[in-house]
Amino acid sequence: MRISVAIDGPAGAGKSTIAKIVAKKFNLMYINTGAMYRAVTFVSMNKDLAPTQVKNICEEIDKMEMHFENDDLILNGENINERLTHPDISKNVSAYASIREVRQKLVKLQQEMSLKYDVIMDGRDIGTVVLKDAPYKFFLTATAEERAKRRFIELTEKNIEVEYEEILEDIIRRDYLDTHREVDPLTMAEDAIEIDTTGLDIDGVVNKISECIRK
Ligand code: C5P
Question: Around Cβ 93, how many Cβ atoms within 10 Å?
Fold first, then answer.
């Protein structure tokens, strides 16, 4: 039986940082599903495809080969992770991620990955849709201000020029779009364990999750 761990939660709740550490600890492949939605946004925007051009976007997705290596998304043989976290992508990704056909395609790819590998997957719909039967499900939260602060530090460290207020606005807007969209909105699975990471350090969260997995 393959092991699968689902981590959901809003933007900036620390999902990817935590998932990467837990992946190393338990020898799991880390699948960053947000990066996959970002990659679709990146390709669509490069081709000037608006979120209404669903058919064209789907044709582009069919040409995309996506897999993960050392926590990074490789798109058609190229590591494009640096470009995916750019604020322009963050601003637009929720619009592309709300397209039903896009979600169907990406969910299928994610489920195929979970059949091939032991995975820890983070996103918005992992515990509720992608890995509904995962034995381990976690839902990470933190206040919007704390999440914006973390993103601000992360982007500033990467030398990307950003304003804290702008990030906070983006996070609040994305929270709204992700929780209110028609298809697979962000909600906590009934059987997920909720962890509020406000004021908790990374080790504290990793330990909580590790204890659950070991049991
Ligand atoms: O996780 P990250 O913040 O990089 O995700 C970017 C966006 O992709 C989210 O705001 C959401 O709109 C979308 N997303 C999604 N379902 C997932 C993962 C991400 O809709 N499983």
Answer: 24
CA-closest candidate to residue 37, choices 73, 78, 79, 76: 73
pTM as predicted: 0.94
How many residues does this entry show for the chain?
Answer: 215
Which atom of ligand 1 is least distant from the CA of 106? Answer: 21
ipTM surpasses cut 0.95: yes
Centre of ligand 1 to C-alpha 32, Å, is 9
Look up residue 127 and give its DSSP letter: I
- Tell me the per-residue pLDDT of 94-126, one tens digit each, with 9 for 90 and over: 999 999 999 999 999 999 999 999 999 999 999
State the number of CA atoms in the 13 A half-sphere of 122 facing the CB. 24
Q: Provide residues with CB under 6 Å of ligand 1.
A: 11, 33-34, 37-38, 93-94, 97, 123-125, 174, 178
**Smallest CA separation from ligand 1 atom 14, residue:** 34
Q: Is 103 exposed, middle or buried (0-12, 13-18, 19+ CB in 10 A)?
A: buried
